[in-house]
Amino acid sequence: MTATRSEYCVIACAEAWRDAGEILASPMGQIPSIGARLARLTFSPDLLLTDGEALLIRPDGTPEGWLPYRQHLALAMGGRRHVMMGASQIDRYGNQNISCIGDWARPRRQLLGVRGAPVNTLNHPTSYWVPTHSRRVFVEKVDLVCGVGYDHAAGARFHRIPRVVSDLGVLDFDTPDHSMRLASVHPGVTVEQVREATGFDLAVPDEVPYTREPTAHELELIREVLDPAGARTREVGA
Fold first, then answer.
1. How many CA atoms are closer than 13 Å to the CA of 34, on its beta-carbon side?
2. CA angle 201, 206, 208 (to 5 degrees)
3. Is residue 147 a contact partner of residue 95, using CB atoms and an 8 Å limit?
């Protein structure tokens, strides 16, 4: 079976939680949510999934347990949560902006606001999902730091940005100065395409692999169990 671009994105998101153990996965967005549930059904069986309110849920959405808000905060503040957030802007050190475009005092565009991004990023691992990789998102310097990057995280015990997944590939910060590195490209994408769609100089290894292929079983789970209606294609086209 041939995988589509959206399915490679699902696989790349799922890999953020590989062998994670019993931690709380908090994916934001359709493709990260499918990815987290896929990880739970395959290589991360101890992963905890939440409905975002007060319940722990199974991959099919049925209740598995109660997660009171106090316990949710205890997991979040103690490094036992791994959230995958969106980003209106993200820079070379992983600083994320979801608040405004332009000067904070007089923005050109008002967005979500800072929300819980500073606490999230300083207290537990945070990855990012960007459905449209472009220079408007991957910028030299974010207009406002909401999610904290490596250059602002000195002394934060649980700060870690495992990966950034976009519709073009996977990026990480596995460099000496924790600047963003191209870890893989999705099949059909070139390194030059990623470079041209990025507003700063990426660290690029001599050889960049392709994002791994989904197994036949994973594709079956994605297409027939987790997302039979094909909602994933609304974030990333076929």
1. 28
2. 85
3. yes
Asked if 116 and 123 touch (Cβ cutoff 8 Å), the reply is no
Domain ranges of the chain: 5-232
Q: How far apart are CA 5 and CA 232, in angstroms?
A: 10
Q: Are 59 and 40 in contact, with CB atoms under 8 Å apart?
A: yes
Distance CA 100, CA 216 (A): 42
Per-residue confidence band for 51, with pLDDT thresholds at 50, 70 and 90: confident
Q: Tell me which H or E stretch contains 19.
A: none
State mean pLDDT over 102-127.
92
Q: Which fold has domain 5-232?
A: Glutaconate Coenzyme A-transferase (3.40.1080)
Tens digit of each residue's pLDDT (9 = 90 or more) over 22-44? 999 999 999 999 999 999 999 99
Closest to 22 (Cα-Cα) out of 4, 40, 41:
40
Q: CA triplet 43, 225, 68: central angle to 5 degrees?
A: 70
Residue 238 Cα distances to 3, 23, 149, 194, 234, angstroms: 9, 32, 32, 18, 9
Q: What is the C-alpha separation between 52 and 237, in angstroms, rounded? A: 26
Dihedral sign for Cα atoms in the order 165, 168, 172, 177: negative
* Residues 1 and 11: beta-carbon distance below 8 Å: no
How large is the average pLDDT for residues 162-176? 98
